[in-house]
Write a structure and sequence with these properties.
- The structure holds two protein chains of two kinds.
- Chain A is mostly helical.
- Helix content of chain A is 55%, strand content 11%.
- Chain A is built from six helices and five strands.
- In chain A, strand 2 and strand 3 form a beta hairpin.
- In chain A, helix 1 (4-15) packs parallel to helix 3 (59-94) and helix 2 (26-52) packs antiparallel against helix 3 (59-94).
- The termini of chain A are far apart.
- Chain B is mostly helical.
- Chain B has two domains: 17-82, Methane Monooxygenase Hydroxylase, Chain G, domain 1, CATH 1.20.58.2050; 84-188, Methane Monooxygenase Hydroxylase, Chain G, domain 1 (Up-down Bundle), CATH 1.20.58.2050.
- Chain B is 47% helix and 7% strand.
- In chain B, helix 5 packs antiparallel against helix 6.
- The longest helix of chain B is centred in the middle third of the chain and has 25 residues, at 126-150.
- The chains are: A mainly alpha, B mainly alpha.
- Chain B: Residues 21-72 form the DNA replication complex GINS protein PSF3 N-terminal domain.
């Protein structure tokens, strides 16, 4: 049956329904495009025959292949679009620098799209607040205090805060830090917010 | 609980399909029994049971929903679509008797979705199907809602396994509501947490190392 490869791509995304990004399936995509090419050529041949020899009995087959072409197109579009949604989400979850194992799963075009998205988002955030800029990825939950107690979950090295003090983020050490400085590290799982 | 920054394209409502929705694409991959009303030249290889070059007229075969929908026309009949047996009279009576006992995951898992899609094909039974779908949903909704609101910190797999995919989504959002209410009650709502996406990635990395 046609379009089996295309549904395989969709299933692959559906299996990771939490929003993880599976590796870009270039091979699968190429196979679909090959199938579409073959379908198109067969259709072209049949259309010519139907016209020249007036064989209208070929029309149902032409239509069937045409449906398959459209279906493949739809699956590819949905695959690529859903991946973009996931990549966009990564910007909000991880911040502007992605870990290598995530970046590894993106195609060259997706990497390019990601950096464009980063740029658009950054220039939008700069334009906010009367030119002063506002980081809208901060404070996803309304803050209750400026400083919070955090515990390190793994060694992260040195970390500089606004006033110039450098602190060493060592595993199991606890610190009292400005909330906006550590929010991203908490999201990345480096720090843990301690609520007493 | 936490805000998800990845929101997939939602499936279409009712008879509509959403072009980019993964769920709808999988739904339209469900197979339907059809009967061809004309010859399909040179596509015999699609029908595995015969060796002919063409698909002859009046062949009974199974085609995916998207293909049946694409080929189906009211004026020029290329194929006629038959009802899958869960939507037929016999099963409909079972559903109306007690919708709670049926395992919609086994029947479907897109029971409601596929049923609504069946309305695209002309059939005298269409109003009855629509009515049966609605009544089944109403009959089961209360139970789905109840169980999603009362299973806190429990293994929900037994509750979920008999649900249709639409009901599963409802169940999950009920659970999310319950969990965030509980964490608010415990005063944890303002605690900053690691993103679940990041945690999932780490889990997988650990699994990769172990294998």
């Amino acid at each position: 049956m046609f379009c089996e490869k295309a549904i395989e791509l969709i299933r692959e995304l559906q299996r990771n329904s939490e929003g993880q990004l599976p590796a870009f399936n270039e091979d699968g995509l190429r196979q679909i495009l090959q199938e579409m090419e073959a379908l198109y050529e067969q259709n072209q041949a049949d259309v010519n025959k139907a016209k020249s020899a007036a064989r209208s009995d070929l029309i149902p087959s032409i239509k069937l292949r045409h449906c398959c072409l459209l279906r493949n197109q739809r699956c590819i579009m949905a695959y690529l679009y859903d991946r973009l949604l996931r990549i966009r989400a990564l910007r909000w979850e991880y911040g502007s620098v992605l870990p290598a194992n995530v970046r590894f799963h993106m195609s060259a075009e997706e990497v390019q799209w990601f950096s464009q998205y980063k740029k658009s988002l950054a220039s939008f955030m700069r334009s906010l607040g009367g030119g002063a800029g506002l980081d809208i990825t901060q404070d996803m939950k309304p803050p209750k205090s400026l400083y919070i107690q955090v515990r390190c979950l793994k060694d992260h090295g040195e970390f500089e805060i606004d006033d110039g003090t450098v602190i060493l983020l060592k595993k199991n050490s606890q610190h009292f830090l400005p909330r906006w400085k550590c929010e991203q590290l908490i999201r990345q799982g480096v720090l843990e917010h301690v609520v007493s | 609980m936490d805000t998800q920054s990845y929101c997939p394209v939602p499936p279409g409502v009712g008879m509509e399909e959403n072009f980019l929705s993964l769920d709808d694409i999988l739904l339209s991959h469900e197979r339907l029994p059809v009967r061809t009303e004309c010859v399909f030249p040179r596509l015999g290889f699609l029908e595995k049971s015969s060796d002919t070059q063409d698909i002859p007229e009046a062949t009974k075969m199974e085609l995916p929903l998207w293909l049946s929908k694409g080929l189906y026309e009211r004026k020029r009949k290329v194929l006629s679509v038959e009802l899958p047996k869960v939507y037929r009279e016999g099963w409909r009576t079972v559903f109306t008797a007690d919708p709670n006992v049926v395992d919609l995951h086994k029947m479907g898992p897109y029971y409601y979705g596929l049923g609504s899609q069946m309305l695209h094909f002309d059939s005298p039974e269409n109003p009855d199907i629509a009515q049966a779908l609605l009544q089944t949903f109403i009959g089961r909704f209360r139970r789905t809602m109840d169980s999603s609101q009362n299973a806190y910190n429990e293994d929900t797999s037994a509750l979920v396994e008999r649900l249709d995919s639409l009901e599963k989504v409802l169940f999950r959002s009920g659970q999310n509501g319950l969990n965030s209410f509980q964490s608010w009650e415990k005063g944890q709502a303002s605690q900053l947490t690691a993103s679940s996406l990041v945690l999932n990635y780490r889990k997988r990395k650990l699994a990769d190392v172990q294998t």
